[in-house]
Automatic annotation (TrEMBL):
It catalyses: (2S,3R)-3-hydroxybutane-1,2,3-tricarboxylate = pyruvate + succinate; 3-hydroxybutane-1,2,3-tricarboxylate = pyruvate + succinate. Catalyzes the thermodynamically favored C-C bond cleavage of (2R,3S)-2-methylisocitrate to yield pyruvate and succinate. Involved in the methylcitric acid cycle. Catalyzes the cleavage of 2-methylisocitrate to yield pyruvate and succinate. The keyword Flavoprotein does not apply. Its EC number is 4.1.3.30. It comes from Brevibacterium mcbrellneri ATCC 49030. One of its GO terms (molecular function) is metal ion binding. Keywords: Lyase, Magnesium, Metal-binding. This is Methylisocitrate lyase. InterPro entries: ICL/PEPM (IPR039556), Isocitrate_lyase_ph_CS (IPR018523), PrpB (IPR012695), Pyrv/PenolPyrv_kinase-like_dom (IPR015813), Pyrv_kinase-like_dom_sf (IPR040442). Pathway: Organic acid metabolism; propanoate degradation. Its cofactor is Mg(2+). One of its GO terms (biological process) is propionate catabolic process, 2-methylcitrate cycle.
Length: 301
């Protein structure tokens, strides 16, 4: 009640433990706080906070138009309500090296457990679109080094994403990933791998865990957790899945209401009032409020 009961530093420790464990873990994307609560209640290990999903929810394309302040507030709102570690998309860090250091500290203060930086140039593009450009390896190393210097909690996970596979090839992407690990990255996010063999090659070449981005309508096939685990992947994210599920249902529902003049035929597929109240712990808030309202001075002299 009244937000997460597990402190942020403990959630960061948990993220580290998950990455060091033997099992692949799943972080579905949350588009808002109640979505994060549902992810936790469904038994997942963590929550991913997608920049692409956040941009879309604002009616914007994923080309770096959202600001650091907006994304930090979004990350704080989600991290506040879940006991799971939250892992957020930091795009290119919102500026030069000093800006990247500040970005890390802002996310630490917001209760986030980790973030990923990417090696695209600004303005960035969605990782599964064509026409991406990447900065030099040396420039990305500067970003990662600045993030490491800015970090105050050693358990805050710093992940380096490389979008170089599409333009430079797999071998170059592996070389970049090695340089990013040397600069201090705790986790590597190889974007837009073409098959399981490429994930396996990346995992075998590195001494840190890798993640797989299982986004729909992208460059990668939608592999199962068993397939990804066998390829050496440690973390899988589903960045825009819940947004797409919700938007698909909303669009179809609006069409029904417009056509039928009532939502009656949709009710069976809706979250019930009872389930909503259970998800947000309404009863605990009510109990807390009643305790405050009924406060007595008796035995409190």
């Amino acid at each position: 009640m009244l937000g997460a009961q597990t402190p942020a530093h403990v959630r960061r420790e948990k993220f580290r433990e998950l990455l060091a464990g033997d099992k692949l873990v799943q972080f579905p994307g949350a588009i808002n706080p109640i979505n994060a609560q549902l992810i936790e209640q469904a038994g997942f290990e963590g929550v991913y906070i997608s920049g692409g999903a956040f941009s879309a929810a604002q009616g914007l394309p994923d080309i770096g138009l959202t600001t650091l302040t907006e994304v930090v507030d979004h990350g704080r709102n989600i991290s506040r309500v879940t006991n799971l570690p939250t892992f957020i998309d930091a795009d290119t860090g919102w500026g030069e090296a000093m800006n990247v250091a500040r970005t890390v500290q802002e996310f630490e203060d917001a209760g986030v457990a980790g973030m990923h930086l990417e090696d695209q140039v600004n303005p960035k593009r969605c990782g599964h679109l064509d026409g991406k450009e990447v900065v030099s390896t040396a420039e990305m190393v500067k970003r990662i080094s600045a993030a490491v210097k800015g970090r105050r909690d050693s358990n805050f996970v710093l992940c380096a994403r490389t979008d170089s596979r599409a333009k430079e090839g797999l071998d170059a992407a592996i070389d970049r990933a090695k340089a990013y690990v040397d600069a201090g990255a705790d986790l590597i996010f190889p974007e837009a791998m073409k098959d399981l063999g490429e994930f396996e090659s990346m995992a075998n070449a590195l001494d840190v865990p890798i993640l797989a981005n299982m986004t729909e309508f992208g460059k990668s096939e939608l592999f199962t957790t068993e397939q990804l685990a066998n390829a050496g992947v440690k973390l899988v994210i589903y960045p825009v899945t819940t947004l797409r599920i919700a938007m698909g249902a909303i669009k179809r529902g609006l069409e029904v209401i417009r056509r039928e003049g009532t939502q009656e035929s949709l009710v069976d597929g809706m979250q019930t009032r009872a389930d909503l109240y259970d998800t947000i712990d309404y009863a605990a808030y009510n109990e807390f409020d009643a305790a405050v309202f009924n406060f007595s001075q008796e035995n409190h002299s």
